[in-house]
Design brief:
The complex is a heterodimer of chains A (98) and B (314).
Chain A (H helix, E strand, L loop, with lengths): L2 E3 L2 E3 L1 E2 L5 E3 H8 L3 H9 L14 E3 H17 L3 H19 L1
Antiparallel strand pairs in A: 1-2, 4-5
Helix pairs in contact in A: 1-2, 3-4
Chain B lengths: L5 H5 L7 H15 L9 H15 L2 H8 L17 H4 L16 H7 L21 E7 L1 H6 L1 E12 L5 E12 L8 E4 L15 E7 L5 E4 L2 E8 L1 H6 L2 E4 L6 E4 L9 E4 L12 E7 L7 H13 L11
Parallel strand pairs in B: 1-5, 7-11
Antiparallel strand pairs in B: 2-3, 4-5, 6-7, 8-9, 10-11
The chains are: A alpha+beta (98), B alpha+beta (314).
Chain lengths: 98, 314
Amino acid sequence: MTERSKSSLRGIVLDEQVMFTLREMSQACGVRTELVVEMVEEGVIEPAARQETEWRFYGDSLVRAQRALRLVRDLDVNWAGAALALDLLDELEHLQNR
Amino acid sequence: MKFKDYYEVLGIERGASKDDIKRAYRRLARKYHPDVSKEGDAEARFKEMKEAYEVLKDPEKRAAYDQFGENWKAGQDFQPPPGWQREHSFSGAESFAGPGQFSDFFESLFGQARGGGFSFRTGGRRAKGEDINAVISIPIEDAYRGASRTITLEVPEADASGAVARRRKTLNVRIPEGITQGKRIRLEKQGGPGFGGSPPGDLYLAVEFEEHPYYRAEGRDIRLELPVTPWEAALGRKVKVPTLGGPVDLKIPAGSSSGKILRLKGRGLPGKPPGDQYVELAVMVPPAEDEKMRELYETLEREHHVNPRAKLGV
C-alpha cells in the first residue's frame, strides 16, 4: 500500500521485514499463481516457510522473482539459467561493495 | 517522429540472416539488459534493441520495414506513407504489454498490433499497467536519517484513440531511515497507467548510494579509513572520529599499526539491530620538512633497532 504523508509517498521496502502471499506475489509479478509455484519448484525463489500450507514470501523474493521473469523473457534463459545468473549477480554486487 | 535504423541498433547488415539477427540480439541483450548491466542508459538502449529485434525477427514486419531501404537514416524526420495503415495489418507482438513498450516510430508502423496483446505466459490481456523500474541515487546521510526526495519519471500514456504520448510525472518519495544500498522500494499503483479499465502498474525504486568522500556502506555497516600519526598509533591516544550521527571519541590502543580495525558499535545505519562503524587505521608518516623534524626522526632511527623486513629475509 502506498500512503501519503505530508505529500510524500511512502512505499514499502522490499526486505525481510515484509511478506507477501502467493496471490500477492503473482499479482505484483503480473503472472498466474501457477507460474510463481513453478519458480519455487525450480528453485528460483524460496518461500519463507515451505512446510506451511500457505506460502509466504519475503520482500526480497519479489525482487528476485521479477528479475528472473525479465531474464527469462528477454534473454531466453530457462529457470536454472535465470537462478544462476541472479546468484552470480548478487555475489558480484556483494564483492563490489567491499 | 524520427526514423529508427533497426539494423544499426543491432549492429548488423541489411542482408543479415535470421540467425545473424538472433545472435546479434542475444549478444547485445546479455550486455545491456537492465538487470545485468550497470551502464547508465542500459534501460533505454535495451528497449531499443528489443524493439529492433521484434521487427527484424518477424518476416512480415521485416519485409514491411525493409521497404524504406537504405534511403533513410536514423534520426531523420519520418512519417509513414499515406495508406500505410490500410495496406498493412500485423499479428500481435509477442511481448506486448501496454503503451510505452515501443517507440512512436514502431507504433506508427506496427501499431495495430495492440489488438491482440499477450502478456508473459498468461495468454491473456495484461491485468494492469506497466511496472516502472527506476534507480534513485541518495547520499548516505539520507539513508541515516531518512529523507523526502523528488523524482521525475516519464510515464507512457495512451489516449482514447490509442495514440501513445509520454508524460512527465513528478513524485515526492519518502526514503526511510536505515535503508541499505540495493534495496528496492515498492510504490503500488504509481507505475504506468492501465488501459481498458485495468489498474495502473507499480513503481519500483532501486536505492543507490552516492559515493562519499570517506564513508563506505556495506549493508547497515559503515567503513571508514582513519589517518593517524605514528605516535598516536604507538603510544595509544584518544582521537575524534566522524560518524553519521556526529563525531565520537575513539581510543586508539597503544601499539597499533596500519590496517588495524576498530569497531564503533551501533554507529552505522539505524535498524534492528543498527549497523556498526568499522574504522581502519592508516598510519600517515608526516614528512621531515624542517630541521627539528629531521632531528627527531634521526633520534628514533638511532634508538630503534628492530628490522621491519626481517621476515622477508633481508
